[in-house]
Write a structure and sequence with these properties.
The complex is a heterodimer of chains A (466) and B (64). Chain A has 466 residues and is α/β, with parallel strands linked by helices. Chain A has two domains: 231 residues, Amidase signature (AS) enzymes (Alpha-Beta Complex); 185 residues, Amidase signature (AS) enzymes (Alpha-Beta Complex), CATH 3.90.1300. Chain A has 14 helices and eleven strands. Chain B has 64 residues and is mostly helical. Classes of the chains: A alpha/beta (466), B mainly alpha (64).
């Protein structure tokens, strides 16, 4: 098998190959480390490589396979982590000068769970600094590039997670999502990512951006792989005050059941009401995806877009207030240790009042009710992954993002599970994503719809030229 | 709601214990005013009886 083919296997395929003894976990890990060494200088996906640990874990997996010990579908599978997951003994930087030398003494719960599932940790991935603000071009670590065109952004804030998967540098990755940070890079890099229901995955050991909006979740190259990863990391954790004490279903149980008769709501009216609206090419790609869902037997209806527009505003207000509160001391003492992009956005929180924050939380309660009321009429919502294609690094305008609608953050505000699945390419060969949103704790329906769409199209087999 | 000026921003920054130069304040002004407009819009949306989404519930203590 050639290096490119090895890099682009799915988790399921790699697991089958390991069990057939096509190659060992050590050979698989060495192949990926070699691929990272050959390619990543162009992409900057990794901030820290944990090659020694990875090879130790691979040898352990190899011994376990030989002795017949079976840990499940992630056993012997190399993965990587957004660099805001605390990893014991491994530098965890949040892509920032503020934490550039921080070595945690504990693992995030999701990291522990991945270890227990037998994964191999390749390293820590680049991101937007502290998961906010935009590509980090003035931090100690270079900004991650989009494998489909390195002149373009990969989306964020889980930039390295999306880019590493698109480049075939790992089989699964963890991201985090406060306003779209799993789904935007998934969309821009042509991979799959799910923001689970708020409380489904422990946030313990994930450096906060905004406590009440932060979600931890997986990213992968296929819907099934994403379900496998979520299965490993989901579940109640007493160390996370927001963790939900609810049963974890088998996320793959109904994944192949199809979507005949499923009711899909599209909040198209005014497309969330921002000045510049949705990019026409992005809307065309989305409309084509909706047609595929119709052909698969779904019934598509329009739903009111107004609450989604206000949700964006509440999300942003809560986010900047909570983010500033978390970082206040560092801003007071050493503000210039933050990069420009994150400083500019996060400091907005210093100039909002307590009443502004509480009003946004009050609006959140009302908007949550209004948005979820749609589930009386439809089973899921479908919206574009992003309002526009990835932009070029050379054309980044920090104010422009506020003139576009935001199709991701209403689902942080409401905590609803939302998956992004690749749904096409622009004329410039940049990927686009389709989001499917389900009621709280109904991730299985997200997976079922996304899987049906994925299998009906060929987008998952497209690869960037590297 | 009146728009903030650079001078307003400077005073508030000082009260918040932030040492920000003129360039920094200028780069923040547009975003701060947008954020304040958004917050004002949300106030128009809620009614007196709407409680915040965040709440303190002793009864939510977990069973494990």
């Amino acid at each position: 098998m050639e290096a490119n083919e090895i890099g682009y296997m799915t988790i399921r395929e790699a697991g089958q190959a390991l069990r057939r003894k096509d190659f060992s976990p050590v050979e698989l890990t060495e192949a990926l480390l070699a691929r990272i060494s050959a390619i990543d200088s162009k992409l900057h996906c990794f901030i820290t490589l944990s090659a020694d640990l990875a090879l130790r874990q691979a040898r352990q997996a190899e011994n376990e396979f030989l002795s017949g010990e079976e840990r499940g579908p992630l056993h012997g599978i190399p993965v990587a982590l957004k660099d805001l997951y605390a990893t014991r003994g491994i530098r965890t930087t949040c892509h920032s000068a503020v934490l550039k030398d921080w070595i945690p003494d504990h693992d995030a719960t999701a990291v522990t769970k991945l270890q227990q599932a037998g994964t191999i940790l390749l390293g820590k991935l680049g991101m937007h600094e502290f998961a906010f603000g935009g590509p980090s071009v003035d931090t100690p670590f270079p900004a991650v590039r989009n494998p489909w065109n390195t002149d373009y952004i990969p989306g964020g804030s889980s930039s390295g997670s999306g880019a590493a998967l698109a480049a075939g540098l790992c089989y699964g990755a963890l991201g985090s999502d406060t306003g779209g940070s799993i789904r935007t890079p998934s969309s821009h890099c042509g991979v799959v990512g799910i923001k689970p229901t708020y409380g489904r995955v422990s946030r313990y050991g994930v450096i906060p951006l905004s406590w009440s909006l932060d979600h931890a979740g997986p990213m992968a190259r296929s819907v099934e792989d994403c379900a496998i990863l979520l299965q490993a990391i989901a579940g109640y954790d007493s160390k996370d005050p927001a963790s939900a004490n609810v049963a974890v279903p088998n996320f793959r149980f109904e994944i192949k059941n199809g979507i005949k008769g499923l009711r899909i709501g599209v909040p198209r009216a005014h497309w969330f009401d921002e000045t510049r609206g949705i990019d026409p090419e992005t809307e065309k790609i989305f409309n084509q995806a909706i047609e595929v869902l119709r052909e698969l037997g779904a019934n598509v209806v329009e739903i009111d877009g107004k609450p989604f527009s206000l949700a964006r505003k509440a999300n942003q207000t809560i986010l900047v207030c909570e983010a500033y509160a978390y970082h206040e001391k560092t801003y007071q003492e050493t503000p210039m240790r933050f990069g420009r992009a994150v400083r500019r956005r996060m400091l907005e929180g210093a100039f909002l009042s307590a009443a502004d924050y509480i009003s946004a939380q009050r609006a959140r309660a009302v908007l949550n009710e209004q948005i979820c009321a749609n589930f009386a009429r439809v089973d899921v919502f479908a919206v574009p992954g992003t309002p526009r294609p990835p932009e070029a690094f050379a054309k980044i305008d920090p104010n422009e993002q506020n003139l576009r609608p935001n199709f991701t953050n209403p689902f942080n505000l409401t905590g609803l599970p939302t998956i992004s699945v690749p749904c096409g390419f622009t004329g410039g060969r940049l990927p686009a994503g389709l989001q499917i949103v389900a009621p709280a704790f109904d991730e299985p329906t997200c997976f079922r719809v996304a899987y049906a769409y994925e299998q009906a199209t060929d987008w998952r087999n497209q690869r960037p030229s590297l | 709601m009146s728009e903030m000026t650079i001078e307003n921003l400077r005073q508030m920054a000082e009260q918040a214990g932030l040492k920000l130069g003129d360039d920094e304040l200028h780069s923040l002004l547009q975003g701060v005013n947008r954020a304040r407009r958004q917050a004002a819009e949300l106030r128009c949306f809620i009614t007196a009886s709407d409680e915040p989404a965040s709440s303190f519930l002793l009864s939510s203590k977990r069973l494990d």
